[in-house]
Every structure is written in structure tokens, then in C-alpha cells.
Amino acid sequence: MDPKPLQTTITGSLPKPAWLAEPEKLWSPWELEGQTLTEGKRDAVRLVLRDQEQAGIDIVSDGEQTRQHFVTTFIEHLDGVDFQRRETMRIRDRYDAEVPVVVRQVGRPRPVYLEDARFLKAETNHPVKFTLPGPMTMVDTLYDDYYRSREKLAWEFAKILNAEAHELMAAGIDVIQFDEPAFNVFFEDVRNWGVKALERAVEGLTCKTAVHICYGYGIKANTDWKKTLGSEWRQYEETFPLLRESKIDQVSLECHNSRVPIELIGLLEGKDVLVGAIDVTTDEIETPEEVAVTLRQALNYVRPELLYPCTNCGMVPLARNVARGKLKALAEGTALIRDELGL
Ligand SMILES: [Zn+2]
């Protein structure tokens, strides 16, 4: 990977073109079907790659153009989950949803994203990142009528994720990231088995591994929840010491416009930190200087070699021109800091 410090990257998702799925919407259904859908998804990946490259993003992703949802699309490819049956469950302690049901042993009959990963790798010369849901967040998306234990189900998912991740690595993926928004909610579970399950998911991987902990997209349930968290968001104080001791290489978190006290990233000493310098809950495009301000604050606690300027979270709900503007601001703000540091 390029050794130049302050490698820019993104959390994961980017908006989809309107011809592929209705824009500015989560869970947006596909506008195409069959072979046309397959080709459309690939064209969309090519477009988001060009957008990232033109903006100056160093470590690029497929923008999750091939999936409807960051957790459910993966689970849809597994055995043992009945999507016809629905039970009501509280998601991340925040809102109720009708969710699919685990009815027997879960398994992965065939690779889920391997072809997508090969395509991504073949379409760019940049280092590439690929995202997968984390085991705890997968558990938090389902009603479990079989294992009846969040821990046991998470462990089964971790083994499945590990097999998938090994194939992605073999396809040339440079960074595999697990998305664990549930880590900001279930602290006792994180301590008891969440980090262990995550470590099971990365077992034996020699590529970079990352975890994205998160306060969520800019949807109402999340912004309402954030209002209840007080003036200082100290949730990371619980999880960072555990992650510092873990085998995970990188931690991605929200910093710009969040109430996370920046000094908390000092608890991650020795890890790569993906510093969220782009707010994904607003259409307002940051100026490069605003990005630079966030990065300067983070540099008080993280060495430049370990700091990766990033977005706060996925950008799928944003308009495409807004997302493109934000990517450019991220790269330009990083360039300001590289100049200051003589990098
Ligand atoms: Zn996120």
C-alpha cells in the first residue's frame, strides 16, 4: 500500500445512480432486473470508482453499489434464515422493525461477494477496501428462534464472515472492514463476546482489518437517539480499550460535527484510526479547511502514519453531487494537512 501518510478513504457506501435504485433513500428497491441489473450494478461500481479517483481518494471501495442494505443483503445469501416469516424486534434499542427469523443452523452455501470483489479489484489500480457487516450487528437484525443466544448466533456468523473474508483477501482486497454500529449500544455484550466474535471473523487474515463503530446514518431514529446522548458522547470510552487490545488493525469513527470528545481516540494507541471528517447527515459540503480542522485535532492524539482521513459513515442517503463534493473536500482538506506537515 502507498506508504505516504494520511491515506484518504471512505467508510463504505455511496449513493447509487437513479437508473439503478431510487436515490436518497435507504433500502431503495432496484430499478432493473436479471442480467440488466447485474450489468447495471457493475456500471455503477465503475462510476463510483471514477468519482473517488477523480476526487483524490486513495483507498477506494465499491460504494456498496451491489447491495440494497449493508447487513440484510449479506444475510439473504445465507442458509438458516427465513425471510418469509417476520417477527417484531427492537433494533439497536432504538426502533421496532419486522425482521426475518433464524429457524435452523446458519450457513453460507456459496461465496456472497467474491465476484463483486474480483470485479472491484480489476477496475482500479488503487488499494481497495471491502465492507462486511459485523457479527453483533447481524445478530441485532434478526429474530433468533433457533440458537436463542445472541452470543452463539454471533459466533456462527463470525465463522461465516471469516470464510468470506479469506476469499475476499485472496481476490486481492487490501482492507476488509466490519461494520458494527451495535458496538455503541450493547456495551456489556461487546465486553463479554462482541470483540471476541469480531476477532474470530478476522482470524488468519493478513490483509488490513477494520471495524467501523458508528452512530448511524442521518435517519430520524438515529438523530433522535443522538439527542438523548448528552453533550459529550463517551460511548467509545467503553469500547476503545477493548479494541486496542484486539487483533483488529483499524478503527473507523465519526468525528466531524459529532459530540465525541476527540481525545478518546488516544485510547486506540497503536491502531490505525479512520477519522471521520465528513458529516453524512447534512447536504452541506464541508470546506477543505473544515476537514483540516478535524484532522489537526486528531493529530494531537494519532501519528500521521496511523491516521486515515475518512467519512463519518456511509453516504448512501445523500444526493450524488453532494457526495462527490464531500469526497473532494476530504481529499483537499487532507492535502492542506500534508502541506503543513511537509509530507
Ligand atoms: Zn456508520
Overall mean confidence score, pLDDT: 94
Task: Tell me what portion of residues adopts beta-strand conformation.
Answer: 15-25%
* CATH second-level architecture: Alpha-Beta Barrel
Number of strands: 9
| Apparent shape | globular
What is bound: which ligands? zinc ion
For the record, give the distance between the C-alpha atoms at the N and C termini, rounded to a whole number: 16 Å
In which range does the helix fraction lie? 25-40%
Structure in words:
The radius of gyration is 19 Å and the shape is globular. The protein is built from 10 helices and 9 strands. It has a 6-stranded parallel beta sheet with strand order 3-5-6-7-8-9. The chain has helices spanning 34-55, 72-76, 114-122, 135-139, 150-170, 187-201, 220-227, 236-244, 288-299, 320-341, and strands spanning 79-91, 95-107, 129-133, 143-144, 175-179, 208-212, 250-254, 272-276, 307-310. The model has no long low-confidence stretch (mean pLDDT 94). Helix 1 (34-55) packs parallel to helix 10 (320-341). With 343 residues, it is an alpha/beta fold. It has one domain: TIM Barrel. The protein is 37% helix and 17% strand. Zinc ion is lined by residues 11, 181, 212, 214, 313-314.
How are the elements arranged and paired?
Blueprint: H1 34-55, H2 72-76, E1 79-91, E2 95-107, H3 114-122, E3 129-133, H4 135-139, E4 143-144, H5 150-170, E5 175-179, H6 187-201, E6 208-212, H7 220-227, H8 236-244, E7 250-254, E8 272-276, H9 288-299, E9 307-310, H10 320-341
Parallel strand pairs: 2-4, 3-5, 5-6, 6-7, 7-8, 8-9
Antiparallel strand pairs: 1-2
The protein binds zinc ion.
